[in-house]
Amino acid sequence: VLTLLVDRAEEEDIKEALLTYHFLQKGNYEAVKMEKLSADVELFLSQQYGVDVSFDAGEAVMRLSEDGLLSEEDGLLRVIPPADASQHLERRWIQGMSKTPEPAAVDTGF
Predict the structure, then answer these.
(1) Is 90 a residue whose pLDDT tops 90?
(2) Which of 7, 57, 102, 103 is the most core-located residue (most Cβ within 10 A)?
(3) What's the rounded Cα separation, in Å, for the pair 87 and 83?
(4) Termini Cα distance of the chain
(5) Which residues is 76 bridged to in the sheet?
(6) CA-to-CA distance for 44 and 42, rounded, in angstroms?
(7) pTM of the predicted model, to two decimals?
């Protein structure tokens, strides 16, 4: 059950990051006024899917920034273009996989 909850939480984080990335790619949002970004995502989800959610873009903005996909320029939040983002994330994935230690050999006693 715990694994299922963690998996669902990770999926939600990814969905939030994707929605935030999309809106930042399409519009101009001030870094100090993230409530506008949150409100735009909420409105989109309500109009397109008929769901009312409380969306907090803050965590998604932090995640995008930590992943190197977002920066702040002249007070505006900017994301890198999709093609560049794809390449950047692929490089990060490969680097992360190369740092993964090999599993330890298990002594079975045979």
Answers:
(1) no
(2) 57
(3) 6
(4) 35
(5) 30, 73
(6) 5
(7) 0.76
